[in-house]
Structures are given as C-alpha cells and as structure tokens.
Amino acid sequence: MSKELIRLKDVSMTFDGETILDNMNIYFNDKEFLTLLGPSGCGKTTTLRIIGGFLTPTSGDVIFDGVRINDIPPHKRQVNTVFQRYALFPHLNVYDNVAFGLRIPKPYEDVSSVALSEASGGKKRKKKLSETEIKSRVTEMLEIVSLKGFEHRSVSSLSGGQQQRVAIARALVNQPKVLLLDEPLGALDMRLRKDMQQELKRIQKQMGITFIYVTHDQEEALSMSDTVVVMNAGKIQQIGTPEDIYNEPKNAFVADFIGESNIVDGIMREDNVVEIFGRKFRCLDKGFAPDEPVDVVIRPEDVDIVDVKDGALTGTVTSVTFKGMHYDIIVDFKGFKWLIETTDFCPEGSRIGIKIDPDGFHVMKKSEYSGMFGDYSSYSAEYDEIGDVEYEESSLEDEADEV
Q: In the CATH hierarchy, which fold is given to the domain comprising 4-244?
C-alpha cells in the first residue's frame, strides 16, 4: 500500500477577497503520478504553488511526511518545480545548467555541527559536493532524460522538447521527493506533446518519486496519471483513477470536462431502469430513490446507429465532421442535440435510429451543474444558421415504452 507523503488539510486561499481555494482536503501518495485537472482559474496552479512553498495558504495546513511545513521556504522543502517556461540559463551549456543547483552549498548537520555553529556565531555548516560527485549525478540524470552526449550543447540550440528535458534533469538532480510540473508541455506542438507525455511517465517510474502535474488538457491527464483530481471554482469535484473519472463521473461538470458527453435529464424509475425522452431503458445503475430525477450521461462512442425502424430513439442528422478515423455527427432528438462518434457516414438531413446498450448509460445525482452541459447546439459555427429540426412528436411517442 502506498505511503501518504503530502496532505492539504482545510486549505483555503483568498486574493483581494476572492476565494481561489475553498477548504481543500486532499492527500498525495509517495511514488504517485497525480494530475490536477481543470479549466483556467479553477485553483490548480495555486494548489501547486502552495505545495512548493511559493504561496502560504490563508488558512489550513500543508503536511509533508507528517510535518507541518506552512512556514518553510521553497528552497528548504524536498520539492522542486518545472514551469511552462523552463527558465534555463542561456549563457550555460546543458551540463552546467543541470549542475547549477548542485554547486550551491547546502546546510547540513553532523556530530560536530552544534559546536561548530556555536564557534561560528550561530552559522550553520554547509556541505559542498565535489566535482566528481557532481559529474556522476549530472551524467546519470542526462541519461535518464535521454540527453546523454548533449553535455556541451548550448541550450539555445536545443528544440523545445530537449529544453524541457534539461529543465526536468535540473529539477531532479537534487533528488527531491516530489516534482511539481505546472503545464510543462504547453509550449510544445501536438506531436512533441504526445512524445513527452510518454517520456514523463517513464521518467517518473524510473526515478520512483512523486510527480504532481497541473494541466487543463484531459488527454494528458488520462494518459499519464495514476490519479486524477478534477477541480472547478476552487473545489475538488472528483478524485479517482483515469478509468473511474471517465467511466464514472460524479456530476455533470466532470462528465462534460472529461471527454465528450451527451447529458440529458432523466428519471430513475427503479433499479436498472432509467427514463429519457419519455422512453425507458435498461441500465446498470441502482441505489436511487424510485422516480428520482437524475442526470444521464451517454458518451458519443457508446451510441450505435441503426435503421429508423430498429431504433430505440430516432433523430435527424444536422452536422457531419470527418475526423479521420471516424465521423462526429450531431443528431437532433426533440430539439436536444447529441454528439455521436461513428465510422458510418450519415449525410446531413438524414433520419437515423440509435441503440444504446445498458452499460452505455451512466446515471448521476442532480447537482449545481445540472442543465449546464451536454447539448451540442453550439458544437460548431454552423449552428448560427441551423434552426431546430422539425418533425412529428408522434415519431417517438408511438413507439413502445420498453426496450
């Protein structure tokens, strides 16, 4: 079982009367890759800066390995940070950039430190690493980040991905227990971002330390993380594995922010039976009160397109976008527009039927976010010119109530 390394206890942060973090409680395990995920302004970078010591919370405690560290400055914490701007020294080569922190003498204590401190007027003794030890650690770190042989290169001659690796090596060479990463892939192109996602996960596993990563990119969070923390408006919305976050969202905000989702009003008639659009469907959810109003999430990839005569619901295609491996189509069901991912081409204006297996439904409690997400009326600019599709109300009402 993983050991708890960091805990934020009742942490709040306000700036000029505005609440940025609202009574946050969360812990981070040793050797874990955890991602703070959310939109701009949700408080994720503030959380990172509090852990790093760059900000002191307005209230609450930051606990590191069982010790309260609220008043400990950044350079005395066993934490290093990699920012989106790498802040490399342009006048130093790769080797000297990585070695820079190792050449700064660090305070330490030994059996004679008390007497030495008293004799020197209270000054702490400082230890300086030998160049031999520095070379060994820098060489090892450059090999870990796949930059062996780049020691004498100017950092200005490196690509963005290579500069990022130098920044990571410089942060890790001091052997911190935790590496904080604040959107470090934001300046890279898409192909390089994907490559670096794999590299960061590999480095974290090889180093065996805790990575706390901040991003607003859901793909990054899902592909790299052991644990994902979804945040909004200074509060944690959900914590879980990438699979749990995607497949079992807690509310409409999480369902909408993680992947694409059709989120419709429903009624939980009984265990394993949910009603949407006046139709009852079998589902896998239970534990709700009879006839309880709920939010129902249906992922675009969980919808099967069939002939109208075979469909549990029928609708009209209003938009088609080719995405290479599949088509994104918008389908109008009684004025509510769904996104469906399909390999079948369906022209605009065509009538289609759909089927959804029981495991394609995810039923959620109503929340403050109910009714705010899930309708793709504004999916593209085309909707400025497209009105609601007109069709007979009886097209759904005449069909059976049960699937």
A: Rossmann fold (3.40.50)
